[in-house]
Design brief:
Layout (H helix, E strand, L loop, with lengths): L8 E4 L5 E6 L5 E8 L13 H8 L11 H8 L3 E6 L4 E8 L3 H18 L2 H20 L6 H9 L14 H6 L2 H11 L5 E7 L3 H11 L23 E9 L5 E8 L5 H14 L5 H9 L3 E9 L6 E9 L5 H17 L4 H19 L2 H15 L8 H6 L3 H11 L4 E9 L5 H8 L11 E2 L2
Parallel strand pairs: 2-6, 7-11
Antiparallel strand pairs: 1-2, 3-5, 3-6, 4-5, 4-12, 8-10, 8-11, 9-10
Helix pairs in contact: 1-4, 3-8, 9-12, 9-15, 10-11, 11-15
């Protein structure tokens, strides 16, 4: 089956904004996706959480748009929208009926160019409180909620830009002045630090005309600082262990490994290997831990790709009631070690590639996902053409490459082990029951605005 090709235009406005357009007239919808090259890795010590804070502030109005009016206008026009923050970037996106494209472009341009006109102390204080409540809900008071914060801190050393969580420090946010926050926006929220992708029922010439009209007058930033050296040794250098007694319904064990950066072929192999290990009910970990030996409620392995010195390969399993945590850890690690010594079988490799191909093709079938991937590849690698080459790269991975990548990464001197165990004491059972409904599903999530 031939791999579909996404045809796109790629150009820059005079002020540096990168504009990528895909015409697709199959349905009368269009996706608008803006990636800013700013995430939590760009934050200074003592000023963490600014990138995520701005994801919320960006919905609080600009010179010509009232507080929360951006959301009301998009939804009133029949569209959907959101924004997310991550270590390497912040993005904002809408999916609209195609005849409402101009409205979405104008709204994005207005907040890029004039948000500071509406940012006052009251708005800052309000959104600071929103972020604090989000931290309480998503991290502090949620079973296993601090897991990824701890895993990243274990994989990336103190002082590295990936060490601190995207949500930031509440002490830093409390200390942030209006002038601090204004300076952060003026530095990073600029056309020459952004990619605008438009995919769907549109005309390239018309999109370019509207982009020139609405984004063209916005001045570029002249003060974007270079990132510090983010290079890292390939290995953590030893095994690090942490046990957390918390209000959790069941014990859960997490494994974190430092992995190659996004773009490295070994990361592609690890990604395919995660399908062999945990891709559905036919995977090795599911068959052994969940189905056959009934040690765990679930088991997962996945890769979080980053570009600054290393990525994260993560595994986790929730322990069945009455099962010893050490038995689950032992079985999990044995499967990682087996992959590192024995390449997948021909059937396992074919299954892993089929699952990956289905995921990739399913994503590329939607206008919003194509827009997001074009912005992602342009921002992180300067090569939006990866949208047409990533699937062939996955399909070319060999069983031996998966084995070799697993051998290089799934090592005891490159392992962070985090175990949550239920809190003991007279009130622990009732507290855990209260928290069951908030338990996470085991996937890493980006900070989400709307």
């Amino acid at each position: 089956m031939p791999v579909p090709v996404v045809e796109f235009s790629d150009e820059r406005l005079a002020n540096g904004l990168r504009l990528i357009v895909v015409e697709d007239h199959l349905a009368p919808v269009v996706a608008i996706n803006v990636w800013y090259n700013v995430g939590s890795k760009h934050e200074e010590a003592g000023k963490t959480g600014f990138a995520h804070l701005f994801e919320h502030v960006m919905f609080q109005g600009s010179a010509h748009v009232g507080k929360a009016e951006h959301m009301a206008l998009i939804q009133g026009a029949g569209g959907t929208l959101n924004g997310t923050t991550w270590l390497d970037r912040t993005n904002y996106f809408e999916t609209m009926p195609s005849h409402q494209l101009e409205l979405a472009l104008w709204l994005e341009a207005d907040r890029m160019g004039t948000l500071l006109d509406a940012l006052d102390q009251a708005n800052l204080d309000n959104q600071r409180d929103v972020v604090k409540n989000e931290k309480r809900w998503s991290y502090d008071n949620r079973p296993y909620g601090t897991a990824f914060q701890k895993i990243f801190a274990g994989i990336f050393p103190e002082g590295h830009p990936y060490h601190h969580p995207t949500i930031g420090s509440m002490e830093d946010l409390d200390a942030a002045t209006l002038e601090d926050v204004q300076a952060f926006f003026a530095t990073y929220y600029a056309p020459n630090n952004a990619v605008l992708s438009v995919v769907g029922d549109c005309e390239r010439a018309q999109v370019r005309e509207w982009a020139d009209k609405y984004f063209g007058p916005i001045a570029p930033s002249e003060t974007i600082p270079p990132l510090p050296d983010m290079s890292l040794p390939p290995l953590i250098g030893g095994e690090v262990r942490e046990v957390v007694e918390d209000r959790v319904p069941l014990a859960r064990i997490h494994f974190g490994f430092r992995a190659p950066v996004f773009g490295d072929a070994r990361l592609d192999a690890l990604d395919l290997g995660s399908q062999v290990l945990a891709g559905g009910k036919g995977s090795r970990l599911h068959r052994r831990l969940v189905r056959d030996e009934r040690l765990a409620q679930d088991a997962s392995v996945f890769v979080l790709p980053f570009i600054g010195g290393g990525s994260a390969a993560i595994g986790m399993a929730t322990v069945r009631p009455g099962v010893d945590v050490e038995a689950v850890e032992r079985a999990f690690l044995e499967e990682l070690e087996r992959l590192a010594s024995e390449p997948p079988t021909e059937d396992e490799l074919a299954r892993a590639k089929a699952l990956t191909e289905a995921d990739e093709l399913g994503a590329l079938a939607t206008v919003n996902e194509r827009a997001d991937r074009l912005s992602m590849y342009a921002t992180l690698t300067d090569d939006p053409g990866l949208i047409n080459t990533m699937l062939p790269r996955y399909l070319s991975v060999t069983a031996e490459q998966i084995r070799d990548a697993a051998r290089d990464v799934y090592r005891d001197d490159n392992r962070y082990v985090l175990t949550y165990v239920p809190k003991t004491g007279p009130d622990a059972a009732s507290e855990a029951e209260d928290d069951v409904a908030a338990a996470t599903d085991g996937d890493a999530t980006e900070e989400d605005a709307a």
